[in-house]
């Protein structure tokens, strides 16, 4: 992709970057060198220090040591505002739009020109953005895209994207990749952080790999390099196995047993329409959908966070009505939200976060049996291999480890059904494998899992069955053997198996529901 | 049965003295039989807030306003407007600068002078005095300070060992006196601005040497003067019933009986327990059935006509 | 339309409540007229400035416990400077006192930024410091105000083209209030600085990452708060003609009105209009209670109950009005 | 920081010391307290004696219990401004009812308003989501109003302080104030509750991330209601203790303790934003404030200067404490 054969001087060159958080070394002698016009991947397991490096490069935090050259010059970058002046523009892992300001004010605040922004937003696949909408009311995925568009609009020299695509549905992610690649072609550099190899190989020229806060290698992206990167990232070789799903005939549904969870004609305003499916004991059922097709609401309804407007939910054959998450938990149903910030008390310890459900019920408000709690918690920590170096406050854990804590909580509490909403968002390959294995393990212990993911590959690798939702309806349900990419994608766009690619089915979907989903 | 509506404005709520003042106003209005309705604005606020209340009373078209001013000068504009609207204005407890207003007031400077002078005499004209003032920045406090300083000037050998502001709050005063006692500084007398019974309590609790104490005629302190062993002290009257007198004055003016002067001062009395006639006087006024924060001088001869039952019932006309 | 309701519904509702209260007042006291409205405007003046001072910092995600003490200090300073001075001297006193408020407010902000002590503690400490300073300036109420200043809140403003009866409803105090607030607020609201103030209140981290100079913005917010408090202090001196070193009941009143006015105490939301209308509502309730000759001990109960009830009602309609699908 | 290179051992010792203190935030607080006591002793040699210690404890205890109410509510991101009114109410009701009633009946009557106000606070905050500041301010206004009305019905009956309360409030046994008999169990209970019970955990969790708590099955309103009732009960008991100490029932008995109780909790390291803090720090905070009051009482200086000094010291102590504890 690099057309210029001459050795170029790097646009951005960081060496010996060090950052300590108390006893935790987030970065030690990390280095990164980015050439003009290059899309440069920054890779590393969870907690390797990628986000920390981005924050340091853009002045959001101060390094303890290190030298950063921009176009060969050592600039004094002390704040994101300085970085912006130097032509470095980040899109951080967390949305940076001010929640209480509308989009337009957010642009004014950062001095971003409006017209280019609008153009980018359209280009990124959001045709009908209302620029007067308050950021708080915009869905997370769209916010990420707006963040990106805002950065693009000022035409930065170096664009730093921290897990930009992690929270995006496939359709939006594709657009983003397209745009990012064109940045490289236009001679601007991009630093791209992602845990998805597909994206890296499709997009990047080179990759810098971090492990435990240090740079362990820089590689050119070429076919077959994945193995090497993984090796460097993890230090050891890990197998990328397919976690074995059960054969369909093993499933309790098949042998006439009562389903663990039985959803019939679930209705929720305009968001969910007549949704019916079963979840068997010992089953991992995948839910696959494009962004905003009602999956958020489905999970929230099953978790007791919102009340459905119609339909029934049966647990173990008995009808239930949830008016609060505690009702669902009582019925053994636990919910792991996609956004960890929603699930964790960030200033509290890992232990307290895991033990939180134990104290929730009124009758559990009394003295805690500390020894027993310690045992339960540490066994959960061990089982998920949570890196607890910074366990005093969950906010100091890396994103991946935080995610593990949200799952560990329910394993400790012994929930029988776990609703996992995109649990691998922004998680490295190693950890992902662990989570897949864990889900399968739970299933083998006759627990059941409902698993929403935005990555097609995951569906195929973990689930026994896939339920595809479009426009608030169940479009189709596949056994995993039949869930090939083409079939899933077709279904995700509202075309069940056997349907001709005509508009007949689409016409049935309420007009406007997909537009609503995008706004 | 009465024909007048009287408005009342007061800016300190929850203090025993002021509560007694309000009750005296109600009782007098009832006893006079001339008042149809009282319109009372009684809350914690400043001069600007009192201006607001006075203007609201003007809007309510009362016949007379009896006001305990937050500040003598600060409510001038409001009082002037009231007079212009044909409303009789009477200030009680403190003077006001508005010339059209009538004033019936306790003489605060004299209050302090009388007590301090007695105290310094008790001390034999020399020694150290603990000077426990009221709220810093309040006008009644600075008036009393003038009186105290006047007495002090007459006794050149008396020194102020320590000057503190109690904020007219019991708990603060108690903590201050205890802190002071702990320093072990010898003193020969204590002058208080009416937060008195907690001071005696503290002396007793700490088994500190009893020194002469001057306070106000609050029921609690007056009781202590006759009951606490070894306590020599004096209560200077500062009747809250001045409120009732204010109502009487307002009614007289409404009835066309204007007083000779704009200003009527109610001179304080001093009740001490150092002499036998003083003790007898104290015996006659002590009243354990009253709340300890209430001044025992619940009536003012010639100015109030209600009974004790009436003021204690604290009910105005129509209640 | 629905967005307008979402953003401005609370203010509109408050305004409706205010109108309703005016109708009630007129029913209680049929003679309630323009003069009484002028009294209301004058009563509102110090509260409104206190509330404006509080609103700015609350929007910026902070709180200012020193508002009332700042008013007391600026008030005694103005009053003691004008005591015995010429009328023209007041022309110098006013800007001096305003600048003093601005600087002391900025000092609040600087202390918060530099010491990293929570704003509630810094402003609580400053409450004592400013109170102490006020006592040093004037040990007891006193001082004076220039006649032309006192006149500036009395009477009405003749507006050309308006009939006399309508002029009577435009009291000078109201005009003064509107002018003082608008001069600061309108250019601010539209500016990048104004947006920055909302931004640091809404999400400080996101604001910092958007390139907002967080520390500087916070200092500016407190400085503006000081400026408004100084206006409040001046309005006290102007209306009473003296300065009093003991702060009035403006601190808690300002917090209450801010919340009543729809400004979230967490920061980032709301505007100035709501709290100002809330002040009018609270003052008018006071007027009505006096007009009705309610037992003074019961008025405290009623005022407390109204405050709680209105906010509860607000909470109730937000819970009810939440769109389906939202999770609380 | 500048001589890092020149004095490595020294610096590393300094860093170790800071790390040590950061892990045990109580130690620097205690050191600050000791420094204040030392200053006092220097200014008035001999003042720090057994009697002074007992007196300091007597006054610090009611403050510390009320600050405990603030600590617990602040952990959930709330605040309880009604503690002053609640304490005053129970004290006043106790002192007036004891005249004609059986002590148990009087006690129950005295605690009734506490429970009631706590319940209303809890429901307002927990169910209707009214901001705690407004809610508790409102109920405290309402409570004060009721107290005023009540007061009128008992003016004639007089008041009496029960001997037991008197003994508890002012008595000293072997140099130890009897109030410790109440305080030690209360303090142990609060500390145990915060650290070792499910309810305590929930206070932290709810204050840190209410949504997360909800998803874990916590019913917010239950926690909050229980919390505010508990807070009010503690305030009520404090009122009884305080009336035993002051022995003069007044309608504003405990009001002056409200702001200091918030300050004590904050100085003790509890975050007003919730999720962070503890009670042991608060106790030291209360002691620091009490010693500071003594210190200022015995200083010979104008009242204004005293207040300025008080504010500055509070600010300095908090800033120094944060500096020491925040080893980041
Ligand atoms: N504020 C903090 N305090 C303490 N430790 C921190 C803090 N922020 C990050 N860390 C630690 O620094 C290390 C690197 O974190 P960082 O967020 O950079 O990881 P990452 O590579 O972005 O991981 P992920 O892929 O999970 O997002 C982690 O071990 C983390 O625990
Ligand atoms: N306080 C605690 N500390 C540690 N583990 C706990 C605690 N409370 C519950 N658990 C664990 O959580 C799981 C399920 O808890 P749950 O509350 O459903 O149990 P339970 O049947 O109600 O228990 P118990 O009879 O002890 O109250 C169990 O494995 C239990 O060991
Ligand atoms: Mg990261
Ligand atoms: Mg991550």
The global form of chain B is globular
Bound molecules: adenosine-5'-triphosphate, magnesium ion
The major beta sheet of chain B can be summarized as: 6 strands, parallel
Helix count from the secondary structure assignment of chain D: 14
Give the strand order, joined by hyphens, for the main sheet of chain B. 2-1-3-4-5-11
Average pLDDT confidence of chain B is 90
This entry's quaternary arrangement is: heterotetramer
How far the N terminus sits from the C terminus of chain D, by CA atoms, comes to 14 Å
Radius of gyration of chain D: 21 Å
Question: Can you list the strand order of the major beta sheet of chain D?
Answer: 1-2
Form type of chain D: globular
Q: Which class do the helix and strand fractions of chain D yield?
A: mainly alpha
Describe this structure as you would to a colleague.
The complex is a heterotetramer of chains A (519), B (319), C (328) and D (328). With 519 residues, chain A is of the alpha/beta class. Helix content of chain A is 34%, strand content 23%. Chain A has 3 domains: 12-234, 3-Layer(aba) Sandwich (Rossmann fold); 251-332 and 416-518, Rossmann fold; 344-361 and 369-415. In chain A, the strands form 4 sheets. A 6-stranded mixed sheet of chain A has the order 6-7-8-3-9-10, with helices on both faces. In chain A, helix 4 (114-123) crosses helix 5 (140-153). With 319 residues, chain B is of the alpha/beta class. In chain B, helix 7 links the parallel strand 8 and strand 9 (213-216). In chain B, the strands form 2 sheets. A 6-stranded parallel sheet of chain B has the order 2-1-3-4-5-11, sandwiched between helices. A 6-stranded mixed sheet of chain B has the order 7-6-8-9-10-12, sandwiched between helices. In chain B, helix 2 packs parallel to helix 3 (76-84), helix 6 (170-183) packs parallel to helix 7 and helix 8 (219-227) crosses helix 10. Chain D has a single domain, classed as ABC transporter involved in vitamin B12 uptake, BtuC (Orthogonal Bundle), CATH 1.10.3470. Chain D is built from 14 helices and 2 strands. Chain D has a two-stranded antiparallel sheet with strand order 1-2. Chain D starts with 7 loop residues before the first helix and ends with a helix. Classes of the chains: A alpha/beta (519), B alpha/beta (319), C mainly alpha (328), D mainly alpha (328). Chains C and D meet through helix 5, helix 12 and helix 14 of C and helix 6, helix 12 and helix 14 of D. The complex binds adenosine-5'-triphosphate (ATP) (2 copies) and magnesium ion (2 copies). One adenosine-5'-triphosphate (ATP) is lined by residues 355, 358, 368-369, 372-373, 376, 413-414 of chain A.
